[in-house]
User: Which sequence fits this backbone?
């Protein structure tokens, strides 16, 4: 079929609508996670953990972190796997990947060498009256995990993560920041006989789900940790004026961007985003579609930072217009605003909209705004 031809405004609005960042806010957390495909977990809480910040950016002040805990631990409507939160209905498309894990020979060899350790962990969790913390699980490994990084000799955590990725155990909840582990059958719904997807069907479904959450993406892109940013042959081809190469777009979402007679008009608003937000997670896409340059600078020396330790990208309408350098000083009860970096000069309406979002963020956090910007 012929490729859709999009101008940049339409391409950006497609991405913003897919990520549920218009003025008409979603109202239900579980439905939101389904639409977004996933929430990424990250412990950095300079302002708020990523999963909470991403949820607040869409749901607004009605969202509470306890809502996420309830959906994970009480309702089992969501589940955590490999630092990502997904709808439980997406489990079938992950099971073929679980069945083939791990693909890397070194990891596979390590598991084979430690099969007794694996069985020890499974038996212990089966007999335990409640989910267990990793620190309460003995290390009975025959061969230590070798790494040049932080995972070196962390045999229990490596085995637990391996068994989770194989679908044998699952995260039942958390005690503080620590994960609680149990057998997968105690957390995940039972597999319905005959419902298993082939690897090819599962990949195709994952690509479709990912495209629906992104709106517009490349068929093939750079490999990314945790979750890809490309979508294979999902959707339909498109080209974007002024941007080289072909894209894939969600045709239903594209059709929804019509006029009042054929679709739903785009509803702009301002939003403060996490550095891990899926709208800007693919930095190359953000640069090509939004002309937005971004680097997470928390790992840089302070003097080499342009935008701040944990700068929040600022969305206004269909444009990414700047970065907010802020930090939650909970001991002092304030949200410190160090700077608002304007990628393009703000007009009065943009400045008021951004200041309104800063005030809303502080209210959600239960803090007062401490504005230390140089005017």
Assistant:
């Amino acid at each position: 079929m012929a490729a859709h031809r999009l101008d940049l405004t339409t391409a950006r609005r497609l991405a913003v609508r897919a990520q549920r960042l218009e003025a008409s806010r979603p109202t239900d957390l579980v439905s939101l996670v389904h639409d977004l495909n996933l929430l990424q977990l990250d412990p950095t809480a300079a302002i708020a953990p990523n999963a909470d910040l991403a949820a607040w950016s869409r749901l607004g002040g009605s969202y509470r972190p306890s809502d996420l805990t309830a959906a994970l631990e009480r309702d089992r409507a969501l589940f955590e796997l490999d630092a990502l939160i997904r709808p439980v209905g997406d489990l079938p498309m992950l099971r073929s990947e679980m069945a083939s894990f791990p693909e890397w020979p070194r990891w596979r060899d390590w598991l084979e060498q430690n099969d007794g350790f694996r069985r020890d962990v499974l038996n212990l969790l089966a007999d335990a009256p409640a989910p267990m913390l990793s620190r309460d699980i003995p290390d009975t490994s025959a061969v230590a995990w070798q790494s040049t990084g932080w995972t070196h000799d962390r045999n229990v955590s490596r085995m637990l993560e391996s068994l989770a990725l194989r679908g044998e155990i699952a995260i039942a909840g958390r005690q503080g920041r620590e994960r609680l582990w149990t057998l997968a059958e105690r957390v995940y719904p039972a597999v319905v006989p005959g419902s298993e997807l082939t690897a090819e069907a599962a990949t195709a479904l994952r690509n479709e789900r990912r495209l629906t959450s992104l709106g517009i993406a490349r068929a093939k892109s750079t490999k990314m940790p945790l979750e890809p940013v490309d979508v294979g042959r999902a959707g339909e081809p498109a080209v974007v004026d002024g941007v080289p190469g072909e894209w894939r777009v969600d045709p239903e979402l594209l059709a929804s961007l019509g006029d009042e007679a054929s679709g739903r008009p785009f509803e702009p608003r301002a939003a403060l985003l996490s550095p891990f937000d899926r709208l800007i997670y693919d930095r190359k896409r953000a640069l090509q579609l939004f002309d937005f340059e971004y680097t997470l600078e928390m790992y840089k020396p302070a003097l080499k930072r342009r935008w701040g330790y944990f700068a929040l990208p600022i969305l206004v309408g269909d444009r990414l217009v700047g970065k907010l350098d802020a930090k939650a000083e909970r001991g002092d009860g304030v949200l410190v605003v160090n700077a608002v970096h304007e990628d393009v000069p703000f007009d009065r309406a943009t400045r008021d909209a951004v200041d309104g979002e800063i005030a809303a963020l502080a209210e959600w956090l239960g803090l007062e705004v401490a504005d230390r910007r140089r005017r």
Remarks:
- The chain has twelve helices and 15 strands.
- The mean pLDDT is 95.
- The longest strand covers residues 319-329.
- The two ends are 53 Å apart (CA to CA).
